[in-house]
Each structure stands twice: as structure tokens, then as C-alpha cells.
Amino acid sequence: MSAQLRAKRKEVLNTKAELLKTSAQDQFAKWAKLRRSADKGLAELEKLNSDVASAKTAFSIKFNSAIWLLTTGVQFFVGWWYRKTAVFYLPPGWFGPLGWWLSFPFAPAGQRL
Predict the structure, then answer these.
(1) How far is residue 73's CA from residue 15's CA, in Å, rounded to a whole number?
(2) Which residues of 41-76 are buried (b: 16+ CB within 10 A; e: fewer)?
(3) Could you give the 3-state DSSP secondary structure of residue 105?
(4) Average pLDDT score over the chain
(5) Separation CA 20–CA 8 (nearest Å)
(6) Per-residue DSSP letters for 25-38?
């Protein structure tokens, strides 16, 4: 796609250079033909540019999503998978009734945190 873009850009630049060399008053038919050709080439160049930009955007979104899944997504999954596994144990009674609050989300009260 970038090769097409380079070729089209080169073609448009050559057409514009030839258009600038041609006199609009003396060679009107040739000038008008070159003008239409340059306008058509510019339209095609803009379409190719938009296609390349959309392809770059799509790749960027896919790549960033994959990176996010491999880093942050894995962290979320590991945290969710091991949410009920104790990280360390406290002897019962060390914190009294506060032990229930410390083990609140998933750990059994009075045993794990």
C-alpha cells in the first residue's frame, strides 16, 4: 500500500510540475487536461492516505489492546483467580473483633488476611 502511495504521489507531483510549465492562455486544452488529471490524482492520493491512516489506526488499536491484555489484563485475572487464597495467616485473637474486618472481602474471619 505504501508503494502505491509513493507512486501516486510521484505521479501527482510530475503532473503538477507539467501543469505549472503549461500556459493556461496559450495551451488551454492541454492545461485543462492536466488540471483534470492533477485533480483526479489528488483525489486518489487523499483516498490512499485515508486508507493508510485507517490501517495504521486499526493496527495501533489491536497492538495496544494486546499489550494491555498481556500486562494489566493478566494482573486482573491473577488477582481474581487467587482472591480466596491466603497471602499469610494470623493467629486467631491477635486483633480481636478487628480480625473480621481485616479478612472482610474473601478470607475466613480470624484466620487469614
Answers:
(1) 52
(2) beeebeebeeeeeeeeeeeeeeeeeeeeeeeeeeee
(3) coil
(4) 86
(5) 18
(6) TTSHHHHHHHHHHH
Whose cell is 472481602? That residue is: 105
> What are all long-range contacts of 6-14, with beta carbons under 8 Å and residues at least 24 apart?
8/41, 8/44, 8/45, 8/48, 9/45, 11/41, 12/38, 12/41, 12/42, 12/45
CB atoms within 10 A of CB 12: 19
State the cell numbers at 1.
500500500
Query: How far is Cα of residue 11 from the mean position of the Cα atoms in its chain?
Result: 31
Q: Which three cell numbers stand for residue 88?
A: 499469610
Which residue, chain included where needed, has cell 503549461?
A: 22
Task: List, for residues 50-93, the tens digit of each pLDDT value.
Answer: 999 999 999 999 999 999 999 999 999 998 898 777 776 667 77
Rounded to whole angstroms, how far apart are CA atoms 10 and 43?
Answer: 14
